[in-house]
Amino acid sequence: MSSSAPAAPTGRIAWLDLARAAAIVLVVVYHVASGAGYDLLPRDGGAAGYWWSSVNIMLAPIPMNLFFLISGMFAVRAVHRPFARVVRPRILDMAWPYLLWSAVFAVTAWTRYAPEDPVGYMRSQAEATLVVMGPYWFIAVLPVFFLAARLGRDRPRLLLAAALAVYLLAWPLKMLMLTQEWIPALVSEGLYRFTIYAVWYLGGFVLRDRIIALVGGIGALRGLLILGLFAVVTATMFFGQYAPLLERALHAAASLTGVLGVMALLPRAASSAPIARAGSLVGSRTLEIYMIHPLVLNAVVVLYPGSALDAALHGTWTADLLLIPAVSALALGAGLLAHTLAARPGLGWLFEFPRARERNTTTGGSRPGSP
To answer: Is residue 7 part of a domain?
Structure first.
């Protein structure tokens, strides 16, 4: 690792866009399958809900770690710009939609989670939003990680060492905080998310060029072998009970092998023009997808069970195989549609910090601060 600050990159690498797209797709499918699998595929209809949920829980070490790693790699150029040029896209354009859509979630999600106590649920969501424990927590931590990268850009070794130390101390710190009655459990959990994911973002920032070289040298075949190792590690973790230290070690091993294995497959995939275009399309709209998909999922969970369609599909192979992918595609499509709508004049405030009327323009394209 160089002792100098990471240089601002030139050009654009197609597989990085594809990695960002793969991460958001995995996140959406995870939330549909593990968060609502039993709502859509109840146990009395067969074991499909269990399998969809279990497989996605085993895949869980990949999506968010990949998301943060790629976000850090994309941040290198912005970190070198004057702060006045990046305060809007990297901070305000993250903080505003986080607060706005957290409020939207709070006033709508009670229909799924607490239909008998909507006011209490809204209050709990407001508290969760303040301590980064709501559904959009990922968006809230990005500005913090970006500022950390700016502060440490001239000492990348020290920055990465500090992030690694924070990661290693994350679990004992969380346990210590949970023993303190004056610290709310939500605060402990929220801080824990900062501590375990900072190393991925800052690692992507500091090691960008080395990661690109490493991924390019692995190749697809070795990538498949690494994913095989990931499957062994994550299955070991899923089907066993271990001491906290060993469990954390297994989780770290699963995260490293899973993320590296997925990335190793992407350069070959990105060599296909249609796949590269799809990766660019989805990857540049991750903010909208991330904000919209929980709302779509909530609506499906409220409306689908007990409906005529549910009665027709209940217990069928069609539902077992296609319902989770179909709902995931619906949620992804809604996010893409939201991006298109927000690009219209006067609607940019949906996903960007509001601009003065005379400066309001269509948004279009990828936001520099999006994950």
So the answer is: no
Q: Domain span at residue 212?
A: 14-353
* C-alpha separations of 174 from 167, 171, 183 in Å: 11, 5, 11
CA distance 274 to 18: 11
The pLDDT tens digits of the residues spanning 38-86 come to 999 998 878 999 999 999 999 999 999 999 999 999 999 999 999 999 9
Give the largest Cα separation in the chain, rounded.
Answer: 63
Mean pLDDT of the chain: 92
Q: Identify the weakest region by mean pLDDT among 4-13, 102-111, 337-346.
A: 4-13
Is 216 inside a domain boundary? yes
**Residues 6 or more apart in contact with residue 76 via CB below 8 angstroms:** 6, 7, 8, 9, 205, 208
Q: Kindly state the DSSP code that residue 363 receives in the 8-state scheme.
A: -
Percentages of the chain per state (helix, strand, coil), in multiples of 5: 75, 0, 25
> How far apart, in whole angstroms, are the C-alpha atoms of residue 67 and residue 21?
9
Q: Is 369 helix (H, G, I), strand (E, B) or coil?
A: coil
Q: Which region among 45-49, 84-88, 96-100, 278-282 has the lowest average model confidence (pLDDT)?
A: 45-49
